[in-house]
Amino acid sequence: SDCRWDGEFLLNCSFTGISAIPEISQTAITADFSYNNIKTFLCANGRHEEWMLKHLNLSNNLISELCLATCRNLRVLETLNLNGNAIHILTLDIPMPAHGSNKHGKVNHLLPALKVLSVEGNNLNTVPRGLGLLQSLQTVHMTSNDIQQIDLNDFQNCSQLKDINLQKNKITKIHPDAFRDLHKLQVVVDLRENALTTPLPQILISLNFFQLEVDLPNNAW
Fold first, then answer.
1. How far apart are CA 41 and CA 191, in angstroms?
2. What angle is formed at CA 189 by the lines to CA 212 and CA 112, rounded to 5 degrees?
3. Residue 105 and residue 94 in contact, taking contact as beta carbons nearer than 8 Å
4. Where do the TM regions start and end (predicted)?
């Protein structure tokens, strides 16, 4: 293909017109597949060796559904860029088994090194369930989606989160305790340009104003 490989750490396949992920060297640290025609991405892809990727860019492709629960070979991945796709389903955990089964539905230690997850400009209508499985997650950007509300458990167990960006969605309702246990939030809770119609005193009281910036302009109120 027209991909450019520096022979050691960087694989650049941006603007090459590929529709599938090519072979990735185990030594690659950064892989850029942006601005292509990729519709699916399978982390494991039937292979068992671990990739050394720390930075993966899949932005501006044609991905509509993505399951991260299979990404057991990306143990050191730190940043995942999924901006500008058509993602309406982002699965972070496996559906719970039928009643009576002894198998657990959750995936333990999913992407254990992931710090930044960016899913801007997609078609999500809810916050992806299971963000708390990403135990190192510090930044999550979901600008310009179709998210309509923030529920109590959307950010449950996201103990390392520092930065949440939810601007330009369709959010009308936020549970009063949605951000209560996020003790490390210190950059921004960005809720600009949503559809909020009621004040948020209880939510704001639960946040640490000495460290935190909250952006709320351009809502319906």
1. 30
2. 95
3. yes
4. none
